[in-house]
Design goal:
Elements: H1 5-16, E1 20-24, E2 27-31, E3 38-41, H2 46-59, E4 61-65, H3 76-84, E5 88-90, E6 99-102, E7 108-112, H4 118-127, E8 135-139, H5 146-158, E9 163-165, E10 169-172, H6 188-201, E11 204-208, H7 220-227, E12 230-234, E13 237-241, E14 251-252, H8 260-268, E15 274-277, H9 289-299, E16 303-306, E17 311-314, E18 321-323, H10 329-341, E19 345-347, H11 360-369
Parallel strand pairs: 3-4, 7-8, 14-15, 18-19
Antiparallel strand pairs: 1-2, 4-6, 5-6, 8-10, 9-10, 11-13, 12-13, 15-17, 16-17
Helix pairs in contact: 2-4, 4-5, 6-8, 6-10, 8-10
């Protein structure tokens, strides 16, 4: 598995909940145990916060704290769902950190608005086999990042859960899980900036790539090809070669919003405008990514306008600029891509990439210097 700040926060949280966690490099063994009350630091990890929020009532009582920016990330619809199932949520500042979730919780039918994040739905799906009587989730709005939900359902079924799609949502039966051995795929969204590097410079980058996957990041090669790059398979690797880039008149990124900062950097280097739609939910990520991208693209000389559900990018000559990262790993890698094209681009706080890829600065240097290490599987992990 990938080792990063997010995954280490999750491992620490599982230990506090009572599990025995043994980690050796990228191999991790987790022995479950009865859940127990705990104080959990979620950092800036929406996944840790939301997934464990759904589990918290089963542990008795969990108090959540985290980074200051975590208080701005949406969680209210999931808390409302948990409250309707009998859990008690104590949040002095409304629906933000710090907060405490106390059990018990019951199963049954629950209404859920997961339009702000697919993680609300994934959280309930993962916890549902432990809820008394299971859970029937009725969705009240569209769910972004559908591939992430597919990943969740696939893992649950592989672990023995009974998960059924219903007319309005999902139904999960109560029952034991037997995960066994899980081989974690390389993170394709982490690989995307390296593929973008080839596209914007006319160079070539190769990285490990699974033959089949449900990850949203798998959509990126097709997007790059639409813009003028060439992608081909060589054994277990994907090879991207840059070309003359053109924008995309309109592209719905609702299934893969996490790729938008990387796509925005590529679009800024194209010869015609790009309109990105379907990603209003990005306003609730590590930062308001639509506003941040508009600000930083403008700072670098590119025409950019945030819309209700996306971004319009009109390429122009890049200029030197200091790109703010907003404590957001995707914004930091966005700035790094622009820096390949324009001298004088500097990225503040590149270390925030440790959230999901602690080795990013060294890998990026290897890439720029043309070393073989940057073309290894690590870029995709």
């Amino acid at each position: 598995m990938l080792r990063s700040r997010d995954t280490d926060l999750m491992l620490e949280a599982l230990s506090r909940l009572g599990a025995t966690v043994t980690a050796t490099g990228t191999d991790v063994t987790i022995h479950p145990a009865p859940l127990r009350p705990a104080d959990i630091d979620v950092g800036l990890a929406g996944t840790v916060f939301r997934f464990l929020a759904a589990l918290a009532p089963l542990a008795g009582e969990i108090r959540f704290t985290g980074d200051e920016a975590m208080a701005r990330r949406p969680i209210a619809p999931l808390l409302d769902a948990l409250s309707s199932l009998g859990a008690t949520v104590t949040a002095p500042d409304g629906a933000s950190l710090p907060l405490t979730i106390t059990g018990p919780v019951r199963g049954g039918r629950v209404l859920l608005d997961s339009s702000a994040s697919s993680q609300f739905l994934s959280a309930l799906l993962l916890a549902a086999p432990r809820y008394p009587g299971g859970l029937s989730i009725e969705l009240t709005g569209a769910v972004p990042s559908g591939p992430h939900v597919d990943m969740t359902v696939g893992l649950l079924r592989a672990a023995g859960a009974t998960v059924e799609r219903t007319e309005r949502g999902w139904r999960v039966a109560e029952g034991p899980l037997h995960p066994g051995d899980i081989e974690v795929e390389p993170d394709l969204s982490n690989a995307a900036p390296f593929l973008a590097a080839a596209a914007v410079t006319g160079g070539e980058v190769s990285t490990v790539w699974p033959a089949a996957t449900t990850q949203p990041g798998a959509l990126f090669p097709e997007i790059l090809e639409r813009m003028g790059a060439t992608c081909r398979r060589e054994g277990g690797n994907l090879v991207v070669t840059g070309g003359r880039l053109t924008g995309i008149d309109s592209i719905d990124m609702s299934a893969a919003g996490e790729l938008v900062p990387t796509l925005a950097a590529v679009a800024a280097c194209a010869s015609s405008p790009t309109r990105i739609t379907g990603v209003a939910h990005l306003r609730g990520h590590e930062t308001d990514r639509l506003a941040a991208l508009e600000t930083e693209l403008t700072r670098a000389g590119v025409g950019a306008r945030a819309t209700d559900d996306g971004l319009i990018i009109t390429p122009a000559r890049l200029r030197p600029a200091i790109i703010s990262s907003y404590e957001d790993h995707r914004m930091a890698t966005f700035g790094a891509i622009l820096g390949l094209v324009q001298d004088g681009i500097m990225v503040e706080d590149i270390a925030c990439t440790s959230k999901t890829l602690p080795t990013f600065p060294q890998l990026w240097m290897n890439l720029v210097e043309g070393s073989s290490e940057a073309r290894s599987s690590e870029a995709g992990s």
